[in-house]
Design goal:
Blueprint (H helix, E strand, L loop, with lengths): L2 H9 L4 H14 L14 E3 L2 E3 L3 E3 L10 H6 L4 E7 L12 E4 L4 E4 L8 H10 L6 E6 L8 H12 L6 E4 L14 H15 L6 E5 L5 H14 L3 E4 L19 E4 L3 H15 L5 E4 L5 H9 L2 E6 L1 H6 L3 H15 L5 H4 L4
Parallel strand pairs: 3-4, 3-13, 4-7, 7-8, 8-9, 9-10, 10-12, 12-13
Antiparallel strand pairs: 1-2, 5-6, 6-11
Helix pairs in contact: 5-6, 6-7, 7-8, 9-11
């Protein structure tokens, strides 16, 4: 039995959002730790960046870039902060975050609550020179008159402190945001953010939703390849509702955690086929074990991201998955994790 399993009942007595705020506060007080040295078999180079392991922290956990180094110290191979919008905003009314403990799932309708890019920029400037891959996930303000301009602003503001930038157009909790995944809107958006980034800027990733029709997948793949983005993150939360045990599954918002696993894996396979392996893919959604991470890698993911599983498995999860993944790769005769990508 892990130490986390002993304290989890106490944590679960708090409502989900209060528990999350307490977790961030505790991590801010945690003494800085040197990231662990993982097995060399886990190291890879993706989009011009060197990742010590393929196990990353998804956006949404550290919205305001308060604890990226603490999370790297827990064994994550990379950390993505945000989603950050040009101006701070409170997000949607509370309650807006729900644990579905019976399903090992989470429903959220946070609505890009964050303190704004300027405050996060100051924090990230202070960590300049420290090791570790820290990406920045950017979004548009809810009341933005021109959402594409908001994304371009985010790229301009954050490009100097981000290992990579993620354009998040896949949240279901900002009305109309997912419309930017349509072919014409996406083409206009990517043109704008690539121009804002410039040739010397960091790699640019695009995060997409799992709730896509085959034609949508083909359009996103074609525009992304033609515009030359550096990777796709597949995928965000879902508005679909598979059979769930918890009555909280009826709450509006995006569903993540274990029930998202199968849909997110299918979307990864779809995008691998649509891009013919010509675009790096980052898998997210329902990953809680090394076997699940390995399955995504074999299906075509160069990297994977976790978030909701931390609620149920605790802060040591990233390191456990990395250690177990190294053993799985060795068992199957892969010299590096990159050799396993798409070999399923």
């Amino acid at each position: 039995m892990s130490a986390y399993s002993l304290v989890r009942p106490l944590i679960f007595r708090l409502d989900a959002e209060r528990a999350h705020r307490a977790t961030i506060a505790a991590l801010r007080l945690r003494p800085a730790r040197t990231p662990p040295s993982p097995s060399p078999v886990l190291a890879s180079r993706v989009a011009g960046l060197d990742f010590p392991t393929p196990i990353g922290l998804a956006a949404g956990f550290d919205k305001d870039a308060q604890v990226p180094d603490a999370m790297l110290g827990l064994g994550f191979g990379f950390v993505e902060v945000g989603t950050l919008t040009p101006h701070g905003q409170p997000g949607n009314p509370r309650p807006r975050l729900f644990r579905l403990a019976e399903d090992k799932a989470v429903v959220n309708r946070m609505g890009f609550n964050n303190g704004g890019q300027a405050a996060a920029l100051e924090r990230l400037l202070r960590r300049r020179g420290r090791p570790g891959v820290v990406g920045v996930n950017i979004g548009a303000n809810k009341d933005a008159r021109d959402r594409i301009a908001d994304y371009a602003t985010g790229v301009t503001v954050m490009r100097g402190v981000a290992s990579y930038l993620t354009v998040n157009i896949s949240s279901p909790n900002t009305p109309g945001l997912r419309a930017l995944q349509s072919r014409a809107a996406l083409d206009e958006l990517l043109a704008a953010v690539l121009e804002a980034r410039g040739r010397a800027g960091p790699p640019l990733f695009l995060k997409v939703a799992p709730d896509l029709a085959p034609a949508d997948i083909d359009d996103i793949a074609e525009v992304s390849l033609r515009r030359g983005i550096d990777a796709l993150i597949v995928s965000n939360t879902t508005v679909a509702r598979p059979p769930l045990l918890s009555p909280l599954g009826a709450e509006a918002g995006g569903l993540s955690g274990a029930p998202l696993h199968d849909l997110a894996l299918r979307r990864l396979i779809d995008f691998r086929a649509a891009t013919a392996g010509h675009l790096p893919l980052i898998a997210a959604g329902g990953i809680a074990t090394a076997d699940q991470a390995y399955a995504r890698i074999l299906a075509g993911a160069s990297l994977v991201q976790l978030y909701s599983a931390l609620v149920y498995e605790g802060p040591g999860l990233a390191r456990r998955i990395a250690d177990d993944l190294a053993r799985l790769l060795a068992r199957d005769g892969f010299a590096t994790v990159a050799d396993a990508v798409g070999r399923g």
